Amino acid sequence: MKHLISPQDLSVAELEAVLTLAEEIAAAPDRFSDCCRGKKIATLFYEPSTRTRLSFEAAMLNLGGSVLGFSSADSSSAAKGESVADTIRVVSSYADICAMRHPKEGAPYVASLHSSIPIINAGDGGHNHPTQTLTDLLTIKSLKGRLSHLTIGCCGDLKFGRTVHSLINAMSRYEGIRFVFISPEELRIPTYLREETLDANQIEYKEVRTLEEVMPSLDILYMTRVQKERFFNEEDYIRLKDSFILNNEKMKYAKPDMLVLHPLPRVNEIATEVDEDPRAVYFKQAQLGVYVRMALIMTLLGAERPNGN
């Protein structure tokens, strides 16, 4: 039995296999409508979520399976003080696979130690969000045709943004990757990422304070929101939340084939006028998230491809 807690839990070969299956599903989703017939996914979401929870549920329903779970800690026995370990022991007897989101770093890992079914980390605090990363990789691969030799700009909250942390860890395993980090001083990438991933793998990167100065060099611009829920001080949040906003004026500096990605939800860090730009692919990215989660569920459950293919 395999769990997905971090992007590193999949080798590059396993990652490529999931992405290839996701591309097959995207090309003909109806072919896969019975691949998980009779299987159930438990979605245990201790934090609010729209896209991630619904895309997991849509993924399992698209595969012919069914869904059970909760959408907030208040609607679960966690409100009574039940531990993650006890919850997953019980849920393991109800479902075949589990997707868990939790505000505490490491909670899905703890669940995996006590689970008899595969656990998928659907986001743990500011730590990891591996299925969003799979979605990001599928988007880049589908639209760029490659996952190597790219200059990737990450803009916004790079300190607390788990989607950025997971993306850095995943993309650092490919050749010719260069990062540009655009953030306020207070929201720079964590030291552990700089030392353990970027420096350890000799990944080229630089840190800047404005979008305009680096836009012409980027192949990918990964925007993130400044997350109010990650701040201890509301004054700091108010001071920084509008620091980096992408609009049509800034897009004039970008390459004709640069892609703008965003894990969503968007607040105001991307002006709605940018939505009409063909380089803005964040809604396509959300659609691809369903296909990649279908592929991951099939992989972890050992489900066969349709028609023996």
Architecture overview:
The structure is a single chain. Helix content is 35%, strand content 15%. It has 309 residues and is of the alpha/beta class. The strands form two sheets. A five-stranded parallel sheet has the order 7-6-5-8-9, covered by helices on one side. Strands 2-1-3-4 form a four-stranded parallel sheet, with helices on both faces. It is globular.
Question: What is this entry, summarized?
Answer:
This protein is an alpha/beta fold and about 300 residues long. About 35% of the residues lie in helices and about 15% in strands.
List the defining traits of the structure above:
alpha/beta, 5-stranded parallel β-sheet, 4-stranded parallel β-sheet, 10 helices
Explain the layout of strands and helices.
Elements (H helix, E strand, L loop, with lengths): L11 H16 L12 E6 L5 H12 L3 E5 L13 H8 L5 E6 L4 H7 L5 E6 L5 H15 L5 E6 L6 H10 L5 E6 L8 H9 L4 E5 L11 E4 L10 H7 L7 H4 L7 E3 L20 H20 L8
Parallel strand pairs: 1-2, 1-3, 3-4, 5-6, 5-8, 6-7, 8-9
Helix pairs in contact: 1-5, 1-10, 2-10, 3-4, 5-6, 5-10
CA radius of gyration: 19 Å
Cα(first) to Cα(last) distance is 23 Å
Low-confidence stretches: none
Overall average residue pLDDT: 91
Question: Outline, from the CA principal axes?
Answer: globular
> Helix-strand pattern, N to C?
HEHEHEHEHEHEHEEHHEH
